[in-house]
Amino acid sequence: MDEETGKAVYIIDADDPENACYPGTCDDIEDNNLELMQNGIHDFPAYITNYDEYGWLCSASTAITDQNGKVIANAYVDISMDEVMRDRQSFLMRLMLILVLATIALIIAYSFAITKMIVEPVNLLARATEAFVSDKKKADPNRLSAISKLDIRSKDEIQELSESIKKMESEINTYIGDLTKITAEKERIGAELNVATKIQADMLPCIFSAFPGRTEFDIYATMTPAKEVGGDFYDFFLVDDDHLVMVMADVSGKGVPAALFMVIAKTLLKNSALNGLSPKEILEKVNNQLCENNEAEMFVTVWLGILEISTGKVVCANAGHEYPVIKHQSGPYELIKDKYGFVLAGMENSKYKEYEFELKSNDKFFIYTDGVPEATNAENKLFGTERMLESLNRSNAEKPKEALLALKADIDLFVGEAPQFDDITMLGLTYLKS
């Protein structure tokens, strides 16, 4: 640049050949720059300009001196900011492309690693557990499945899961084996209990009418055990043509032990009655027999009466049992509040008292176990003796079967969906001799 002439000579132009100024080409110095140079300012920092002809430029100048330090020329540099911005944009685009490709590569590598480290082992576990379930459905449930063959060594949670599943398989196989044995045993016990239920039912009089051809009385009885077998029992049988024995009893406890004790007690009571003993003597004898070797400390409550068919007189004894119920022809059902003694098998040499009452033509008699008044509904309320008497009076059935079935229906209605708490046993008799 020459401050005297205000001219500048191009040394080099980096623009494209079509727009470039060839070396040696002269051009006017910008007025601002010329003024600075004339004022002795030859060095000035870069600044930005925007010309219609040259565009957006970044310019800077510095002095060129000789060996004595005299300024002999100015070097002036213009840089196109458009080119700079295009270069920057191009750089950023290339950088973005590189980052995107690098990200994709990392995602692919990470996905591959995840697949190898997690997905494949999990799929292997899933297939092994599916095979395990399939094996359990086959005939040989104890055959080791694919789980036992797993060999995952990822040294992380997947390996721990694999080991846990192996342990689970072993425990399930053990559980299935135990359950199979328990189920088989339960089925065996169930089958035996069904047989026991049938045997117990067959031991009780269950064919009605019980005494075809006997028109002096009508008798009916039912027993509904709370379990497969129960401890309640009833019995009635003729000692001779003129004497009918009626028994109602309730063994302590439930289930098989009570049923076994019931069989013994029923057999002893019937044998003693058939030997012609009175109700008092029967209870005293059977009590002592049951007290022998009664290590289980079980006991039984018993009401026993002998009806003299020709006269209607009933001689009774009560060993801790529920009050019997009587209905004379012109009156309601009501309790006979007798004086009862101690339960059988409770204490050796216990004494019992007899009492008697008389039945007239069309009088009705009813005995039962505590399963009737103690039937419990979902609200934990008892059916009770009052409801029992109300039900009997409401039905006022002529035949004992109808009376018992009506009472059982009322009990079921009261109890609803609540489970049966105790055995329910009932016996009814209508005296028909005039």
The percentage helix is: 25-40%
H/E element sequence: EEHEEEHHEEEHHEEEEEEHHE
Q: Describe the strand arrangement of the main beta sheet, using strand numbers.
A: 6-15-14-11-12
What's the oligomerization state?
single chain
Note the beta-strand portion: 15-25%
In CATH, the architecture of the largest domain is 4-Layer Sandwich
Which structural category do the helix and sheet elements fall into? alpha+beta
Distance between the termini: 159 Å
Number of domains: 2
**Estimated radius of gyration:** 56 Å
What's the helix and strand layout?
Elements: E1 7-9, E2 26-28, H1 31-38, E3 44-51, E4 55-65, E5 71-80, H2 81-136, H3 157-203, E6 217-224, E7 232-240, E8 243-251, H4 255-274, H5 279-291, E9 300-308, E10 313-319, E11 325-327, E12 333-335, E13 354-358, E14 364-368, H6 384-395, H7 400-415, E15 424-431
Antiparallel strand pairs: 1-2, 3-4, 4-5, 6-15, 7-8, 8-9, 9-10, 10-13, 11-12, 11-14, 14-15
